[in-house]
Amino acid sequence: MKRPSRTAILHGFFIAFALALVARAAKVQVMEGKQWSARAKRQHFFASSLSAPRGEILDASGNTLVESREMTRVAVALPEVRDTALVIKALARASVDADAVHAAIARRRRWIDLPGLYSTSDLAPISKLNGIHLTPVLQRVYANSSSIQRIIGQLDGQGNAMSGLELSLDTLLRGDSGKVRLARDRDGRALDSPDGWTDEPKPGATVVLTINNTLQEICERQLSIAVDSLHAAGGDIVVMNPHTGDILAMASNRVGKTSFANTAVTEPFEPGSTLKPFVAASLLEKHRATPTDVVNTHNGQLELDGRVINDMHKAASLSLADVIRFSSNIGIVEFGQRLTPSQKYETFRDLGFGMPIGVPLPAEAAGTLREPRQWSKQTSASVLMGYEIAVTPLQLVTAYAAIANGGELLEPHLVKEIRSPEGKVVYSAEPKVVRRVMSFDVSRTVQKMLLAVVQEGTATKADLATFDVAGKSGTARRTSRDEGYTTGNYTASFVGLFPGNDPQYVVLVKLDSPQGAHYAGGDIAAPVTQIVLRAALSARDAALNREDLAASEKDASSKAEKASGGSPVRIVRTDEVRDRPNPASYDPNRNIAPRESEPPTRSYVVDLPAGSRPAPVPVTARAIPDVSRLSLREAVRTLHGAGFRVRLLSAATSGTAPAAGTVAAPGTIVELARPLE
Amino acid sequence: MAKSSVGFRGRTLVALLLGAFVLIALSIVWRRTIGIAEAERLAALDSKRATLESDRARLDAEIRDASSRQSLGTAAERRLGMHVPTDKQVVILPRPRQNETP
Q1: What is the ipTM of this complex?
Q2: Could you report the per-residue pLDDT of A445-492, keeping only the tens digit for each?
Q3: Model-level pTM greater than 0.80?
Q4: Which of B73, B78, B101 lies at the smallest CB-CB distance from A601?
Q5: A273 to A203, A332, A573: CA distances (angstroms)
Q6: Can you tell me whether residue A46 is helix, strand or coil?
Q7: Which residue of B has its CA nearest to A184?
Q8: Taking the CB of residue A496, how many other CB atoms lie within 10 A of it?
Q9: Angstrom distances, CA of residue A107 to CA of A78, A110, B15
Q10: Residues of A in contact with B65 (CB under 8 A)
Q11: Chain B CA closest to residue A597
């Protein structure tokens, strides 16, 4: 047998080696291919969670109130850091709190999460340093308004909803998070991969509120001014559209409290005299009284069931309309005796008192309305005066909206619309009638009584020169712990309907524990309402229908003359009897005066409500200017500047009617004719 | 002569195959290198986009705050001596009827 040559052995060895390689490759590729492939994928690719952008919250006009913003959380992995001094210097340059960095590094832990969130752009220069780990975090950016935050609520540091609409609408706002497969480079950094897949996150829905941001800011600012100047413990303002139940503004202020509870919904209060119109409505509805029925008001003092009831405005007798107008406690108690306890209870229950109203806000209070079987001997009279019953500001506004809209109790809305991420409207609020609480005629009669309250009664300081305002003031004693009702501690409130004859707003102003001589609702809450209405009238978008408003506008001089007619009822004011100094009018503008350190500003005349009706403003007739050669815009401006109102007409030639040079009173409508192009 | 020609063709073929293999391998490496570079650029752009979005949200919020009544109202009243007009000073223009619109 011929021995194989060394070359053949070598060839054989190579062939065997090649076959072994092929066999091994076949085993790895064919038999174990899937396992190795999966292992490679695990090493080269990883799945990363994609946070869904949380839905925006907009006001009724589409202005953003809350949106999400990407911020960055910084962590330091100390074992990966090569040059600690360089890292500290770089972090300090990127505005990261230097003390926190030093303290964290001093602890010598392997992984350090630095406190706070930082702008991604600030951290860009340090993103590639060894040992620095940046994690994107979505942060909510809120409108700079504490009251808006009370409505909207907050998220915690991990992005979980804690309060407000953020909590109650969390399932809609948070969206669905997604996943993405990324490639990993040799340094472990993530890279987009063409082999990767992405499960796109689904952003949260957009929630449109009924809140009008302009009106909200007006309310918030005036509330803040009032609380500061009156040294009150806090206050609330709620504005509602009485025809739809839309909550247009909800401002709250609590001095020294950092909580973000929405007190207009969570804190019930004893409403005092603001409840009397509902008693009057019940009496009228059940035909137990007419507005002209008169009761004995005992010259302002009545002893009943072991206690003395006093009236601020003392009179021998008053009609039901005057009981409301002068807020007579004795009068309403006398009239209220015509109702059984059950009827009183049902009146208040039907108005929604004593039960949650159903707005999508957590921790809504139900208020207090006890059943007649739980009433004491005095409760029957107390509830008529707005005591022993507690309502939230929102409940009270909703009940007054029934007077304003013709007798229907509406479900209040805070959410106007919900839109899917694709922009499709998935929910739209519609006015929903809960029940009819009074007939249309009764609501109109009560509305007239409320007009008289502002024109000639306890709340003249809410009145406007060119619009009627209806409303009712309330001044209720407050209780303090272990002491019961205390002297000098009041809730001053006013609920107004604007305009008085065809309301577009129901406005509640409530001030808690105002200090000093001014504490009556008519003295301090009514003027706040007035300034809120003035500011709303002058605002570009404050949820007012100006066309309807123009129809409600009155001539200032005729309104003043009408009001100066006076009341035929002989009223003796408490201050006349007790010789108490007449409280100065609350001046809502007083704390806009410059501080001592600031340069003096020019002073302007501001018409403030006075105790007596303002005298008619003298009007001087003037000639209508010739505007035929001016542009349309300049012509309108010139006519307005001259004090005339303008109506535009199309005509063959330019001109005015009355003609230029005609003497007319300011406020006269001048028809401005212009040819149409 | 014929044997030598066959051997030459075989070596040429192997060389060509090897060359093709090298070229293909190089092109794969090049493609992957370019891919990774593009992925890095894409990641950087994505990060920049997120940063710009974040800055936009911050600037929007700052504009909202600066143009709010709380900021403007205070400045207008204190520095310019302006005030909220009374309702008498507010003129509501009646909307012209359709056929009267210029």
Answers
A1: 0.70
A2: 999 999 999 999 999 999 998 899 999 999 999 887 777 888 888 999
A3: no
A4: B78
A5: 49, 9, 17
A6: strand
A7: B36
A8: 32
A9: 10, 9, 64
A10: 143-144
A11: B78
